[in-house]
Write a structure and sequence with these properties.
Length: about 220
């Protein structure tokens, strides 16, 4: 864990750590930005926004101490969450990347993020129900990877709960795809209908593959 504090006018008042009841997940909206770069930016520029932590593939940088309020999920508009506010939450920004379908988190950033959130859950006795997306508080499209794909969000939460073995079978590469599915997947890859993420991860869930194979056999892609 590294520390580079934000400019003092980018975050709020001192608070009793007992006030901390929620963890709010964000994405930086960057494409390959690092936690350190973000920490430096908030230490230098006057932004009137802030977050407690920035997470990337390798590092976690603290930008606002836990016992100070950061400005990460406030709004002048409507609150859609009955209780989660800046004053009672910790803001965690996960560095993002941009792929063909939108933003995503690398596996390493996800892993680092999960570790940090688990540590904070333990430290402040925060149950999984109080780990929320920025979206849940204000309906801002943040974190985009978990708003666009609410299933990815439920998987992230399942991992936070230590359900480490995904209850789902996921095929990441063509080699992992069982024999009954390879012809379909090869076809979809060749046609460019299926591309995977930037790292080439197909992320094909078992039943999704079955659906694709059935459609393929039914001639839907001809
Ligand atoms: Zn956010």
């Amino acid at each position: 864990m590294h520390t580079k504090l934000a400019r003092r006018d980018n975050y709020g008042a001192h608070r009793d750590p007992k006030a901390i009841q929620y963890l709010v997940i964000h994405y930086t909206g960057g494409d390959g930005d690092t936690a350190e770069e973000n920490a430096i930016y908030f230490s230098r520029d006057f932004t009137e926004t802030s977050a407690h932590y920035f997470v990337d593939d390798n590092e976690v940088w603290q930008s606002v101490p836990d016992d100070f309020t950061a400005w990460h999920c406030g709004t002048k508009g409507t609150y859609y969450h009955p209780a989660c506010r800046n004053r009672n939450s910790i803001g965690i920004e996960l560095c993002s990347r941009r792929g063909p379908d939108g933003y995503y988190y690398t596996k390493s950033t996800r892993k680092q993020g999960i570790q940090l959130v688990q540590d904070l859950m333990k430290r402040y006795h925060i149950p999984i129900e109080r780990v929320v997306r920025h979206y849940d508080v204000t309906h801002k499209c943040c974190p985009e990877p978990f708003v666009r794909d609410s299933y990815a969000w439920s998987r992230f939460r399942a991992e936070l709960e230590g359900k480490e073995d995904e209850p789902l079978t996921i095929y990441h590469t063509l080699e992992e795809v069982p024999a009954w599915g390879t012809e379909t997947v090869k076809f979809l890859l060749e046609k460019g209908y299926l591309a995977g993420d930037d790292e080439g991860d197909l992320d094909l869930e078992h039943y999704m593959l079955r659906t694709l194979v059935i459609s393929y056999r039914a001639g839907s892609y001809q």
